[in-house]
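Entries read chain and fold; for instance:
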Amino acid sequence: MNRHLSFFVLVLFLLASISCDQSFDPRVASEPLPIIYSVLATDRSQQFVRIYTQYDSSAFVPGSEAIEIPITDALVTLNDGANTIVLSDTLLTRPPDPRYQTPIHAYVASGLAPEFGGRYTLQVQSSTVGFATSVVTIPEHPIMYLTNDQILDYPHDHKSEERATVLVYLQPGAKAYILRLIVRYEILGQNGWEQQRHEIPVSFYHIPRKYEEAIYGQLTRLTVAASILQSYSNEAYRMVLSDVATQTNPSKLVFHSVVLQFVQFDEHLYNYYSIASGFQDRYSLRLDHATYSNISGGTGLFGAYAVDSLEHALPYDFVYNRR
């Protein structure tokens, strides 16, 4: 009896072993899925949409090849509530890349500068990957002021600890911002006057302050505050001016203006950024957050940013000019 029981148990074990013999293979075939990326921007008149599908992982070993499968049969439109623009497909020259060698396939809308506060609907229709859509709202215009600007005109007439102040009143639509104060100047080179720019540091990592330890404008999440106050020391300002004058000597040099640049990120662009880069550690990857996407019928990102600027002209006889 025990022998029959043992034989029966052995048969069950063999059957279980056969039925469970399913080795793991990460290369699983899947249905085509549109992967869409587009970021609308107010500081350019061309808007781009990239549409790809994931490669068939049952046919390729991930990492063994540089694989991109663009969707080239799509009808791509942008609608602002009153007008619908059909995007045209194009090939863009890819920046030098050791991995990908082919041009970038994209859909482009020429002559389109999104309006502040505008609401835009992206639609993608393709026989390959079906229908996908998303909506984005451009942040509204802020109200910006630059005070104590006499420091910018005559930096050596003021103490190093005196500060020029930036005040920004926000309107609805933004979830994060970058604020920069930038010096614009021209250098006379072999091919004529060349326009250059340099950002003024917000602060420094240590005291005494060193130019190589400067901290510049960073992406900052907005809270409930309706205004932003940021100040720049005359010491940091003079440090930038002195460095530019030294590095360009003896070429002719003309400082034209100081520009306040304010960049607003919409909700979707910031959410995507915070997943990809918000950990602030370039050497690790967060695995405890899901990938962010606001594409219905696909995956990817449809976001927007808005750029505003306020320019303060410097005097003709600015102390650092070499005319």
Q: What stands out?
A: Residues 24-29 have pLDDT under 50 and may be disordered.
